[in-house]
Amino acid sequence: MATGLVSAAREVSGVFGVVLVGVVLTRRERSELRAGSDPRGAFLTGYDLGLRLAACCVLAGALVTLVALRRRGRHRRVVARNRGRAARVVTK
Fold first, then answer.
1. Cα(23)–Cα(16) distance, rounded to whole angstroms?
2. Which pLDDT band holds residue 9 (cuts at 50, 70, 90)?
């Protein structure tokens, strides 16, 4: 994958993460306000839920990364055959 594409994917996923947390925060805050909570408490309740969701998303992403990027048997190692001779790369 090209470096520019990876950077763009990171930026887009970061934007979606911020939007997701913001939407959850706003909806929960409005729900709490309708239920009669004070504005500060309603905001903090929404903020807490949004951060918990973000933490769960990070955990899920870490688990997906561990499973998807595991390379079994494809590790590269350098094997020096003899001293003084060039090393060669062996792919398993």
1. 10
2. confident
Q: Which amino acid is at 89?
A: V
- The rounded Cα 42 to chain-centroid distance in angstroms is 27
Percent of the chain with pLDDT over 90: 48
Task: Determine contact, residues 89/78, Cβ cutoff 8 Å.
Answer: yes
Question: Can you give the pTM of this predicted structure?
Answer: 0.63
What stretch of H or E contains 89? strand 88-91
Backbone conformation region of residue 43, classed left if phi is above 0, alpha if psi is from -120 to 50, else beta: alpha
**N residues, the chain:** 92
Show the tokens assigned to 59.
């955990």
50, pLDDT greater than 90: yes
| CA 30/CA 22 separation, integer angstroms | 12
Among 1, 6, 13, residue whose Cα is nearest residue 61: 13
